[in-house]
User: Which sequence fits this backbone?
């Protein structure tokens, strides 16, 4: 029996996608080889990569004046790649600081010799809130504003898109991408690690507006240089071929199951059910401000920290895995990405009720 995997990443993948990949694993498209063995320069794989990009553009509604890049190094590589591509040393950049992932992006910008302005820092709430939309001002002289729409570790999510005027908006969409419709045209650059909603780890998708290409510093490594990678269709070096192939299957699955509008409805229903169970229990609690609660990552606490390990162990024995909170914050965390069915959330809610009855 497959477990309900609540990991924050690598995350649960759609069963239908895994079954298709399994059926093609030894003989992809009649080649007598696995897709992992086929040359990335072959006509068959180039067509596969092209189809994956076309599906991503269709499903996400990516405008024609954006390049789609399939890069390696995960989202973390972009903490340095973004300033390398969009700034010169000493330029000013702005950030909204809402948790550990935005902190890493800030550190990367400072490492590249930038003048970093943190327009809002939610430290006072313990990073359980997002700044009000009218609480900060974006100086038109900064090179870009960076924010993290969903902080995976803290379960904090923006309920609005920051207004930046002519300043490019840069966003780490790792835990948000493909979970709902998004207006890509509001952003200068979107980046996302694949291991949440797009497939296995090892792939990072970057959507970058054309006017932001060609600005890279001369010292930028070629595999991190957006213009070079765009010019080579992300095949300047060998791409993560299996991840690209699986992304294509997942995008087809998203399309066939109603697209991002239907996906958003399912995700919101799952999150609402889980938060309702937490709020109504009197035993569990969620530390995040209600307006900043994530659809994708739901942290929760029990009255006594000594119950955390038994909760996680008993849940795993019941087929509900990876519920331990991040090591830096403790507690529990249920990541309920696209592939988590409502049945998994209901099973978790039932287990939580039984655990409360036994330990309350």
Assistant:
């Amino acid at each position: 029996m497959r477990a309900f995997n609540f990991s924050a990443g690598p995350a649960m993948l759609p069963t239908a996608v895994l079954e298709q990949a399994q059926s093609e694993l030894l003989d992809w498209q009649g080649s007598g080889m696995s897709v992992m063995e086929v040359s990335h320069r072959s006509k068959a794989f180039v067509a596969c990569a092209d189809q994956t990009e076309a599906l991503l553009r269709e499903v996400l509604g990516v405008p024609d004046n954006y390049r789609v890049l399939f890069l390696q190094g995960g989202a973390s590589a972009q903490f340095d790649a973004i300033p390398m591509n969009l700034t010169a040393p000493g330029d000013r950049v702005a950030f909204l600081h809402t948790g550990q992932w935005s902190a890493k992006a800030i550190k990367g910008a400072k490492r590249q010799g930038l003048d970093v302005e943190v327009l809002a820092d939610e430290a006072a709430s313990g990073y359980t809130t997002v700044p009000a939309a009218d609480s900060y001002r974006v100086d038109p002289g900064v090179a870009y504003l960076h924010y993290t729409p969903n902080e995976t570790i803290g379960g904090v999510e923006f309920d609005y898109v920051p207004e930046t005027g002519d300043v490019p908006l840069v966003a780490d969409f790792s835990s948000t991408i493909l979970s709902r419709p998004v207006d890509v045209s509001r952003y200068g650059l979107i980046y996302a690690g694949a291991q949440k909603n797009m497939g296995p780890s090892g792939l990072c998708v970057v959507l970058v507006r054309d006017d932001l290409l060609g600005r890279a510093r001369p010292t930028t490594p070629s595999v991190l240089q957006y213009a070079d990678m765009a010019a080579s269709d992300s095949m300047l070096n060998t791409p993560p071929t299996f991840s690209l192939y699986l992304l294509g299957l997942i995008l087809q699955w998203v399309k066939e199951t109603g697209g991002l509008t239907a996906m958003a409805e399912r995700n919101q229903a799952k999150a609402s059910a889980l938060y309702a169970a937490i709020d109504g229990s009197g035993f569990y609690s969620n530390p995040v401000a209600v307006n900043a609660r994530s659809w994708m990552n739901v942290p929760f606490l029990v009255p006594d920290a000594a119950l955390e390990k038994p909760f996680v162990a008993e849940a795993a024995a019941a087929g509900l895995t990876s519920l331990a909170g991040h090591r830096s914050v403790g507690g529990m965390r249920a990541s309920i990405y696209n592939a988590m069915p409502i049945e998994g959330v209901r099973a978790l809610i039932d287990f939580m009720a039984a655990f409360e009855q036994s330990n309350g």
Remarks:
- The mean pLDDT is 96.
